[in-house]
Amino acid sequence: MCAIGFGVNSLVLSLLINCKYFMKKQSLRSKASHKVALGAAVVAIAVGTTILSSCKKESVAESEQLTLAKNSSKGGAEVQSYQSGTNNGYFWSLWKDDQSGYVTYTNGSGGNYSVSWNYTGNFTCGKGWSNGSPTRKIGYNCGAYTCNGGGVLAYYGWTRSPLIEYYVNEKWGSSRPTGEKKGSFWSDDAQYDIYTAMRYNAPSIDGTQTFRQIFSTRTSQAPTGQNKVITFGNHAYAWQQAGLSLGSDFSPAAILLTEAYGGSNGYVNATVWQQ
Question: Does the annotation mark 165 as catalytic?
Fold first, then answer.
């Protein structure tokens, strides 16, 4: 998974987060292997990303990020690495690592978005909230999911104090995301395995850092086309019981993430909401 590969103020930090969200996470990726336009405008671009690989976008000034998001609302804009904004009351972001191929992201109504791609690198995108929460309960429906290659659909975000990158993996492409296993638990009628990995001197939302990744991965993929629930507090509690505590600062963004890496193609149409 990459390192929503994601601050300054609450919103901008979130932007940086979603962007970082995603660089290549080689530790996890080796084991299992981690926007465009407001109001439904489409952006076609050359993109790249890596899931559970700490995808981080290069640092960009806050004003530059906001400008990118604003310009994208015109539609047909060329995205250079990272873009984010708000749409229908939801925060969205798109990050890519500028490899060959294309990624086309579209914001739909409410919490809906879609993305299609045929890309050699790593990208991350999704819709959600400008800040995380240790107790958020989300609903989602993945109406379509095709990923030929590495990738995941996950609830994703970061914490600070300490810096932690987290995932709740619901669906994936050619390989199931794994790492150092720390246990298993049940939540929302599904069984999850707990994994962790360390990223050393890797890109993050706060520049090059050494940080921990924590993630839950379903033992079997979530069904397509059904309303599902993620009670994030259950995951945070299970991680803590396994000795993997999140940070105290949840100001970075949290999104229903689509990530792909390592050369892949696919299509996702998903909708997220707060329960």
Answer: yes
